[in-house]
Specification:
About 30% of the residues lie in helices and about 30% in strands. The protein is an alpha/beta fold. The protein has two domains: about 130 residues, Response regulator (Rossmann fold), CATH 3.40.50.2300; about 110 residues, Beta Barrel (OB fold (Dihydrolipoamide Acetyltransferase, E2P)). Pfam families: LytTR, Response_reg.
């Protein structure tokens, strides 16, 4: 396995390299990159590695900037001393988020997660190639707009919700529309990688999540964009599914 480490602290990078070699002697660290600038230069002239370990706060910018500028498809395991970046990290190709100092058992578990995900993707790819093309999901919804109708792109939808036996969608620019479909129907029509049913009354997009807070009785409290007047929760029975979705 070929690995790239994006880390501006020399001793942290060396320690991670040693831990990886202790877990699996076949792992080869092909580059240690201390900045976004060095990362851009390296990835533009070298083949992508099997896996990337990336700190977030580098010597010039946050590593997210590197992945915004280049379409890097390698999975990423983030290694950082800060927990507040977790949501943004999981919106990248992240398969795990390790807090420093890195525990070797957590590192081993993250590598196992990578191996399991790679196996699933390979298996899925073989299945799709032998069976049928990937399923198409709805790209737009027809909504009521006053006395007329309008078309809203799915990419512009922050979340869906039901109130008083009616279904609504809310766009990122904070417009609210009535739609005729039920939440059960919509859940089957949208891409499950982008939307998650957090409760019986709400289906949200990944990009509308701003903050996640642990809450009483095992639930999670969410801050969304656009914001809601009432508090928004992930129901207790859906919390693990929601976490797995973020980490998929």
């Amino acid at each position: 396995m070929k690995v790239v480490i994006i880390e501006d602290e020399f001793f942290s990078a060396e320690k991670l390299s040693l831990q990886l070699h202790q877990i699996d002697a076949s792992i080869e660290v092909v580059a240690i990159l201390p900045s976004v600038e060095s990362g851009l230069k390296w990835f533009r002239t070298n083949p992508e590695p099997d896996l990337i370990f990336s700190d977030i706060q580098l010597e010039d910018k946050e590593s997210f900037e590197l992945f915004r500028q280049l379409p890097i498809e390698s999975p990423i395991i983030y290694t950082t001393a800060y927990s507040q970046y977790a949501i943004q990290a999981f919106k990248q190709n992240s398969i795990d988020y390790l807090l420093k100092p890195i525990d070797v058992d957590e590192l081993r578990a993250a590598l196992k997660k990578y191996e399991n995900q790679t196996y699933r993707l390979l298996k899925k790819g073989l299945r799709f190639s032998m069976e049928k093309p990937k399923e198409d999901f709805k790209e737009r919804f027809l909504v009521k707009k006053g006395n007329s109708l309008a078309v809203i792109r799915t990419a512009d939808i922050a979340y869906f919700k039901s109130e008083q036996k009616l279904s609504f969608l809310l766009t990122f620019d904070n417009h609210k529309y009535i739609i005729e479909s039920t939440l059960d129907q919509i859940t089957e029509q949208v891409d499950p990688k982008r939307f998650n049913r957090i409760s019986r009354s709400r289906l949200i997009s990944l990009d509308c999540i701003r903050k996640i807070h642990p809450h009483f009785n095992g639930r999670l409290k969410l801050e969304l964009q656009p914001p809601e007047e009432e508090e928004v929760f992930v129901s207790r029975e859906r919390v693990q599914i929601f976490k797995d979705w973020l980490n998929s």
